[in-house]
């Protein structure tokens, strides 16, 4: 890469320009880090021949927050708030993935009710993430109504999170071994309200977009990718499924009792923006069906089983306060967990879940101390963003914007 | 006469603030919720989100600003026309938040002067609206001459801005 | 495709150049010398039975106490058809951290190797554009190595005493 220092100011020395971009007859355009249509801070310097894109180079790292180094300082349960901020549109998914990784390392087995409650929370956050992505694809192609209409129901999902953990967006939901408190009746009522009202709303949203002539013309053929190229680029999640490969971590390596549920994986054909939109839309329907099944299964638990909300591991899950005040072992465990003095068994584990964007993996190496020795997040956005310059080549500038929003790039996950 | 004129100008200014959402991370999503129909920001006069700094009044910095992004934020601030206000939304923009690391700017007031700080991680939409209302109070109380005063000039000089 | 079958195939081809066979939490892990990393990746890609054609993850770990082998580059591979995962590590000394780049085989290795270079200083030979990706370009050290602190030492508003460092 040649850097042409004459044309750049001191503030912009790190920006890469494509080779020969100054001498050629093409226009160099900076689709800079602060741009209304880029969802988060990515920079692309594109070379345009008229309106067609000839070449693009990306610069990332504008929101690098050093999560991996930060995690080496914190005990396991303090890392959950960091995982929240990876894909912040669906924080509970990241939290659950992290808890599952810790449970794999620590050898904790969760009871069925906990698994089903986790499935409900995970599928709700998958719906909320796909909602944002699909409605923002609409906004970027000029249709603001869908976004406003559907955000109402995202508020309802936020209310369900609030009933369980107290916070809306960066949830820090759940604990190693289960949840911090049992789901209240209010939470279940809100869940039922959601299950009743949301299908009608999603149907209307579909009617606005799926067979809309303008939307189809904007998105069909926009940013396609072939299945082999997608696999070589490390694509996972809805973007890969839109290209035709049916790889879903929930089915391949089921976690949290996903094998008990009956659902379909939607798969597209050409991997263009329209296919990605349709795949995400269908995944929302499948998530709704999974939540219904999980809710029925939870209602079938009776008696003492219906009160279970965490695994029985006093070494890693805080004991109940009344035991802490009366029993000696509970007091000691409480002290050790809060002060961060529990030693983690040594070992290395890689666990991945199907996050909203693809396979979110956690590679945790512990050397027996109190904090991880090395924690690495396998972030799906970071890996498939490499294909972006190839996907927009030859297309027009406005298609590049639609491609970027349909890939669902979340800056927090990209840079970590 | 001059004071009545100031009152009219302040009234007009405070009810028609055009914000620039400089959204980098999670607080940006809470801003989207604030701008949506449930917590509507438009009823405060902020109907048109200007994405061009030349045309905006208020820059809402939402999210973590890393050291790589600092010069970009400064350039955007410099492009704004007077009178301009800055609101730091969220813990990361106010002071670096939970990210006390080598790559994160510990608060945007290291690079630009800030008027209102909204704490929270992320702040609830009600808190963002409260911060917005505080900006409106500041706009109301500000005279017509503040931007030419020596005190303001020395504040900007403290940040290295002419 | 059991772990024993994979281990058998690999030892048939490479013999005892591959060491450190273990199975933490069910994932087969082994170590290869750094000159062979591309050959092992290519073999795992091309072999009809093994077919590990998806690079899940590529990153490094710093072990300052392992003199002569401080940096470990770890590859996670996945066989999507038979649903099999494998992990292999390549150790390199910190004075000459040169490892062959996997970008010719896997396009996804591009950014991942740049990130590994940015954090640990591993020099990938044959990478088309090995420059910093996440940190500022002016940074002159490799932050995720164990000797460097987490916080920015030049910050003035936070006091180490008060913040319990």
The rounded Rg of chain C comes to 18 Å
Structural class of chain C: alpha/beta
The amount of helix of chain B comes to 25-40%
Strand order of the largest sheet of chain C: 1-2-5-4-3
- Tally of DSSP β-strands of chain C: 7
Strand content of chain B: 5-15%
Biggest beta-sheet profile of chain B? 4 strands, parallel
The second-level CATH architecture of chain B is 3-Layer(aba) Sandwich
Shape of chain B: globular
Most extensive chain-chain interface: A-C, 43 and 38 residues
Q: Please report which band the strand proportion of chain C falls in: under 5%, 5-15%, 15-25%, 25-35%, 35-45% or over 45%.
A: 25-35%
- Per the CATH scheme, the topology name of one domain in chain C is Beta Polymerase, domain 2
Tally the helices of chain C: 3
Give the uncertain stretches of chain C in residue-range form: none
Helix percent of chain C reads 10-25%
The overall average pLDDT of chain B, rounded, is 89
CATH architecture of one domain in chain C: 2-Layer Sandwich
Tell me the radius of gyration of chain B. 16 Å
Distance between the termini of chain B: 32 Å
């Amino acid at each position: 890469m040649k850097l042409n220092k004459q044309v750049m100011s001191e503030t912009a020395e790190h920006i890469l320009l494509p080779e020969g971009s100054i001498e050629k007859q093409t226009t160099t355009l900076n689709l800079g880090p602060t741009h209304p249509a880029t969802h988060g801070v990515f920079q692309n310097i594109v070379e345009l021949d008229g309106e067609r894109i000839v070449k693009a180079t990306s610069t990332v790292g504008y929101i690098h927050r050093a999560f991996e180094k930060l995690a080496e300082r914190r005990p396991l349960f303090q890392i959950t708030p960091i995982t929240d901020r990876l894909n912040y549109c669906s924080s509970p998914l990241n939290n659950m993935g992290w808890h599952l990784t810790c449970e794999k390392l620590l050898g904790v087995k969760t009871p069925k009710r906990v698994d089903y409650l986790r499935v409900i929370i995970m599928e709700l956050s998958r719906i909320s993430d796909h909602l944002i992505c699909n409605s923002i694809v609409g906004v970027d192609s000029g249709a603001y109504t869908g976004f406003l209409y559907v955000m109402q129901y995202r508020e309802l999902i936020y209310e369900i999170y609030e009933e369980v953990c107290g916070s809306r967006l960066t949830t820090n939901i759940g604990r190693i071994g289960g949840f911090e408190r049992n789901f209240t009746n209010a939470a279940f009522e809100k869940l039922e309200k959601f299950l009743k009202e949301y299908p009608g709303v999603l149907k209307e949203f579909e009617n606005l977009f799926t067979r809309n002539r303008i939307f189809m013309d904007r998105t069909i053929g926009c940013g396609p990718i072939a299945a082999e190229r997608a696999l070589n680029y490390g694509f996972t999640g809805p973007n890969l499924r839109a290209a035709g490969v049916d790889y879903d971590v929930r089915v391949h390596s089921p976690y949290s009792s996903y094998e008990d549920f009956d659902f379909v994986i939607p798969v597209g054909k050409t991997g263009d923006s329209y296919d990605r939109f349709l795949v995400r839309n269908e995944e929302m329907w499948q998530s709704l069906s999974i939540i219904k099944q999980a809710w029925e299964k939870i209602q079938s638990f009776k008696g003492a089983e219906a009160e279970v909300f965490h695994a029985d591991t006093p070494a890693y899950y805080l004991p109940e306060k009344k035991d802490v005040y009366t029993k000696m072992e509970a007091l000691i465990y409480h002290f050790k967990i809060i002060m961060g003095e529990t030693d983690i068994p040594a070992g290395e584990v890689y666990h991945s879940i199907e996050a909203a964007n693809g396979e979110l993996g956690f590679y945790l190496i512990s050397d027996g101390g109190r904090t991880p020795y090395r924690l690495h997040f396998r972030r799906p956005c970071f890996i498939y963003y490499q294909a972006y310059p190839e996907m927009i080549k030859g297309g027009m500038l406005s298609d590049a914007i639609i491609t970027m929003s349909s890939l669902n790039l979340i800056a927090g996950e990209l840079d970590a | 006469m001059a004071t009545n004129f100031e009152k009219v100008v302040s009234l007009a200014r405070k009810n028609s603030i055009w914000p620039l959402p400089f959204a980098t991370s999670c607080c940006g999503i809470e801003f989207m919720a604030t701008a949506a129909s449930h917590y509507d920001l438009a009823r405060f006069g902020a109907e048109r989100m200007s994405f061009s700094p030349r045309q905006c009044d208020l820059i809402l910095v939402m999210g973590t600003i890393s050291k790589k992004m600092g010069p970009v934020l400064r350039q955007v601030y410099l492009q704004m026309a007077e009178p301009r206000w800055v609101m730091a939304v969220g813990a990361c923009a106010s002071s670096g938040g939970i990210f006390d690391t080598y790559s994160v700017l510990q608060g945007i007031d290291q690079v630009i002067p800030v008027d209102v700080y909204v704490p929270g991680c992320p702040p609830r939409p009600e808190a963002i609206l409260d911060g917005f209302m505080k900006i409106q109070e500041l706009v109301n109380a500000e005279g017509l001459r503040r931007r030419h005063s020596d005190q303001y000039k020395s504040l900007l000089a403290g940040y290295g801005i002419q | 495709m059991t772990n024993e079958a994979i281990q058998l195939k690999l030892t048939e081809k490479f013999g005892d150049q591959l060491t450190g066979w273990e199975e933490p939490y069910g994932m087969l892990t082994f170590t290869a010398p750094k000159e062979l990393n591309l050959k092992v990746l290519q073999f795992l890609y091309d072999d009809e039975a093994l077919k590990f054609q998806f690079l899940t993850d590529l990153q490094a770990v710093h072990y300052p106490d392992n003199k002569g082998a401080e940096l470990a580059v770890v590859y996670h591979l996945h066989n999507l058809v038979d649903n099999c995962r494998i992990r292999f590590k390549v150790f390199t000394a910190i004075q000459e951290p040169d490892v062959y780049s996997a970008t010719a085989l896997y396009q996804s290795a591009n950014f991942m190797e740049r990130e590994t270079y940015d954090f640990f200083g591993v020099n990938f030979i044959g990478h088309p554009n090995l420059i910093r990706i996440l940190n500022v370009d002016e940074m002159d050290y490799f932050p995720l190595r164990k000797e460097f602190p987490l916080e920015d030492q030049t910050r003035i508003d936070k006091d180490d005493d008060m913040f319990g460092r």
